[in-house]
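ok trying again, last paste got cut off:
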Amino acid sequence: MNWRTIVKIVAANWPAKVICFGLAIALFVFHRMSTLEERLLLVPLTIQSDSLIPSSSYPQMIRVNLRGESAAIFSILESDIEVFVDMQDVHDPGLHTAFVQWRNTSSLQSIEPIQITVDPMEIRVFLDHRMTKLVPLVANLRGRVENGFALASYSLNPPEVTIEGPASIISGVSELFTSPIDLDGRRASFSAEAAVLNRDPLISVSGSGNSTFQAVITFLVPVRNLTNVPIAIVDLDEEFTAELARRTANVRLEGRTQNVLDNFRPNANFLSVNAAHITEVGDYVVPITADLNGALSDTISMRLDPEEVMLTVYRSSDRDPGESEGDGQ
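nice, full thing came through this time. structure:
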């Protein structure tokens, strides 16, 4: 059989042969595609813009549907596909619509056949100018220290953080808080790591996202204040009478426990001025003393206001029997 014969055989009924060949290819492709499997990936969306950033919520994750041979598509990672919207040419704040695009890495170039589709195919998002701002960090304190102790002071390091985001949102942020810091039952100084709380996904916080909290806790001295406690004049010679410039004083008691202070009951001459040394009439500045009932003096200390008082002394014979002692208050 020569080549002319072969050409005649091939050329005979060529339209039908072309149709059959096309159908064969179509059946092969259909069969091949019908045996392909699907896989769904969630890939983070990147908005590409030089000067603007999102100021409203938008889909943070995009569904990427892969269709191909099982062994091939299940070897693909989320990091192998980049999903983005290109807004490089947008320069005015406001509402904008853009198509969602994707690009693959070099590792996907050799995978055939493969189909990649994204959902949603476009997004609508408000854009605003980018703004940075330094704001103070506030400790979020919970609970109370142990009874008898006090939180004297505390600090955060760093005390401030830099935030970045859309100008319309950043301008309204005046401070950020830490995660809760528990003080319950504390009776000694301590330090702890606290996270910087940022509940707005459109705002980013620079740094590690943590702050070191340091607290100074001190022992709290129990205190009881007594006001307008009478002052008695003791050991004054019967030859004399006397008047105080003021007849009461205020007492601040400090003790080891609050219970001891609360149960203390001052006696009748708890506060007094001693006049045993007085032998002449006149004005004397005398100290005020307090009787802490003996043993209590070891557990209670006190401060007097005032600590001394003016005492005016007269001879009893010189006073009008009907004249009363002034209250000196």
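cool. Confidence is low (pLDDT under 50) at residues 324-329. Residues 11 and 17 are 9 Å apart (CA to CA).
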